[in-house]
Design goal:
Layout (H helix, E strand, L loop, with lengths): L2 H8 L9 E9 L5 E8 L5 H14 L8 E5 L10 H10 L5 H14 L6 E11 L2 E2 L5 E2 L6 E14 L3 E5 L4 E5 L3 E3 L4 E5 L1 E3 L2 E3 L2 E6 L7 H8 L7 H16 L5 H17 L8 E2 L1 H10 L4 H9 L7 E2 L8 E6 L2 E6 L6 E6 L2 E6 L5 E3 L2 E3 L2
Antiparallel strand pairs: 1-2, 1-4, 3-14, 4-7, 5-6, 7-10, 7-11, 8-9, 11-14, 12-13, 15-16, 17-18, 19-20, 21-22
Helix pairs in contact: 4-5, 6-9, 8-9
């Protein structure tokens, strides 16, 4: 799914749209004991309760595609009868009205969701009568030939709030209020099936992780039946390590800043495209070549099996700035100002040299050079 498709589904999480037909949930304590389950029509919730749930659902579809939101394709093995995909299809087709399937799903989550605190599992049934989109991107609500039927799962930590002194307006008295078990924002979840090209695609799921650096691999492998991909942090580390290994002794500020600049320009050129920019091995080889890397370095990068990965460009660099660090010093350089920073040998010592203008500030105080 791309940003526009995710946004279209998020906008549905409004009680007035009536696309959420049912909600099922399970409250689990830190010892993995089920403390409560519920299963009811979403329409009977109070307006306040529905709004709170809808905020959770929107957050489950929030984040950057390729980082906190991952499009996960099901392998053939997972789609076999009795596999993870088959189970999810049955769960979806039940519209959350089969208690045995729900119980089985909850037990799978409890077994595979790594968590040392209480948490709340929420499932909703989505029935979206897909409106036709015209060439000028207008939605025609009265013209539809497909219903998008999906499940959204959200998993939220439940934490005890602190007790506090509060004002009791009825008694007009200050008194102590004990802490309550509060449902926090979701940390994991998934949408199945996905809404690719504004139509149902049962061959993929959209996985959500609040922290892109902490993909729950056990959850992905055993509940969705897919091999967990490298997370954003791991992807960045692999690319960085392979670049350092390939460039070797020539790995200096100038060449790394040029690589950063080249990738930044690719991201900028792709800004209007709703699809994230994905860099393959050949793309990185072109970046290295344009950045002045030696032929030997390019060959070494090409020959490494570790570089046979597709990585969103924004997982490799911070497209807005360059971070430069040395012992005890950290410098953040805007892309447009990278030319002002150079490395030089001064009196036999390696130095970072910054070209400055008339304005220098130290802790917000203007100083003279």
């Amino acid at each position: 799914m791309i940003k526009t498709e995710i946004s279209e589904i998020k906008k549905l999480f409004n009680k007035d749209t009536n696309v959420i037909t049912r909600i099922a949930s399970c409250y689990v304590d830190a010892e993995k004991n089920i403390k409560m389950t519920s299963n009811e029509s979403f329409y009977i919730l109070t307006e306040d309760d529905a709004f709170k749930y809808e905020e959770i659902f929107k957050k489950t579809l929030s984040g950057t595609v390729g980082k906190g939101l991952l499009n996960i394709g099901f392998p053939i093995s997972a789609q076999a009868q009795g596999g993870a995909h088959d189970f999810l299809m049955k769960l979806r087709d039940s519209a959350l009205e089969d208690e045995e399937l729900l119980k089985s799903f909850y037990n799978q989550v409890i077994e595979n969701f790594v968590c040392d605190e209480n948490y709340y599992i929420i499932l909703i049934n989505i029935m979206y009568d897909i409106p036709v989109k015209t060439k000028d991107k207008m939605l025609l609500d009265d013209a539809s030939d497909e219903i998008y039927h999906a499940l959204l799962c959200s998993i939220c930590p439940v934490r005890l709030s602190k007790s506090a002194l509060v004002y009791n307006s009825i008694r007009q008295h200050i008194e102590n209020r004990a802490g309550d078990w509060k449902i926090e924002a979701p940390v994991n979840g998934f949408l199945f099936p996905v809404f690719n090209d504004r139509t149902t695609d049962i061959h993929e799921a959209l996985y959500f992780s609040k922290n892109p650096a902490e993909i729950n691999k056990k959850f992905l492998e055993n509940i969705l039946g897919v091999e967990a991909p490298f997370n954003a942090k791991e992807q960045k580390e692999i690319i960085q390590q392979e670049l350092v290994k390939a460039i070797g002794n020539d790995c200096n500020y100038e060449i790394i800043s040029r690589i950063h600049e080249e990738i930044g320009e690719l991201i900028e050129a792709n800004a209007a495209d709703p699809n994230p920019l994905i860099l393959e091995k050949n793309d990185m080889l072109n970046v290295m070549s344009k950045s002045g890397a030696a032929d030997e370095a390019i060959s070494m990068y090409r020959d490494s099996e570790n570089t046979d990965i597709s990585v969103p460009a924004e997982n490799i660099i911070d497209s807005g700035r360059l971070d430069v660090k040395t012992s005890g010093i950290s410098i953040k350089v805007e892309n447009s100002d990278m030319y002002r920073l150079k490395t030089m040998d001064i009196n036999g010592k390696k130095c970072l040299v910054i070209e400055v203008d008339d304005c220098i500030e130290v802790n917000g105080i203007p100083v003279k050079g």
